[in-house]
Amino acid sequence: MRLTWRGAEFRLLLPILLLVPLGFLVTNIALTGALETGDMTLAVGFVALFVVAHVVLVASGHRGDQLILPAVGALGGIGIIMLNRLPQDLAGTSAFGLELGMAATQLLWFAVGMIVMLAIAVGLRDDGILRHYKYSWAAIGIALLAATLVLGYEVNGARLWIDLGPVSVQPGELLKIVLVVFIAGYLAETRTLLTSARMRIGFLSIPPLPYFLPMLVLFAAVMLIVVVLNDLGTALLFFGTFLTMLFVATGRRSYVLIGLILFVAGAWVAYQLFGHVQARVDVWLDPFADPLGAGFQPVRAIYALGRGGVFGEGLGQGLVTLGGSLTIPFVHTDFIFTAIAEELGLLGAFALLGFAMILVFRGLRIAALARDDFGALLAAGLTASLGLQTLIIIGGNTKLIPLTGITLPFVSYGGSSVVASFIMIGLLLAISHRSGSADEEAAG
Question: What are phi and psi of 292, to 5 degrees?
């Protein structure tokens, strides 16, 4: 194994890793009113994590994409600065003798996620365990959801969490990965049949049911359970990812049209049958109808976005608390984008979106350069999941769509989300490395 100099990655990481300590410094000055650095332990720890990750990739001879890690570093840097600025008693860890505040706990999860990412990126040289055991992965996904249904408990009306001793986990975060693995494996195997053999219903062309039914049944089962668990954000994410992968595999616009028709029909039925769906939509349409009740969060978010304007209030100068209470409940999870937009303004919000777009573009590039159908579909599915999750939560924060309780990847607080997102990045890097190695062997 020989060293591979990853110069572009190093050059792009350098300004990010310098700006994170600067963000901590500026925030501390704004909050304390004193020209002091404050505690920089978390900032140094964050920098150290990405330096170590870069060194490991160089030492292992990794030839994967060099823009992925800097994009993650930028998103994570913005997130850790904002989480450090918020009241630290909003969340934290009290286990195994540790007493950590919210930002320190987030950094701990970043460390766990980074270890898993590097293990996958460096160690997963053969994707056979993913490709050939797709039904096993699907079974694991169903088991995760079933466990949540039986053992889970509700937070904000959604039954998403399971207690595992001193920590709580969100199985749905891992489910979105295993579902993408299954769909990629199944579509790679049946791609030719789904593309060439078709049935016609009027002007629409649909795939033959014998080829399409197994995936459709599994997906319908997952969606049904997710709706029962009141996790509408994950349901929307799964549906969007599924349609994206189906289009990438077949290139059939009719399949997407059918999917959109089914989505509209399903949304109407859900609105009629489920009170919590109706409540979400009603609040989205008119949050000011009950500004101190159901519309409290959206209304406060709108005001925060307005205060931010173009240039923002400045780091540490946003109206996070008022009279000792949070102006926006769950600002560290569901509404962290709003807090960022208030303090960094429209320009800062666009910068965050820009980093997310870089991640999506590079993920799609990895899919386009993948050396086989499975790798291409897996990369496309993982990228679609990350991109759609970002759009869904930001759309909810800005009142473009009804609010759903999912996290902003690498930015919002949450261990399950952070680790799951790093697993996706590890898989993307592994696929990219194989493509790079294949090109090098062909050239040599």
Answer: -105, 0
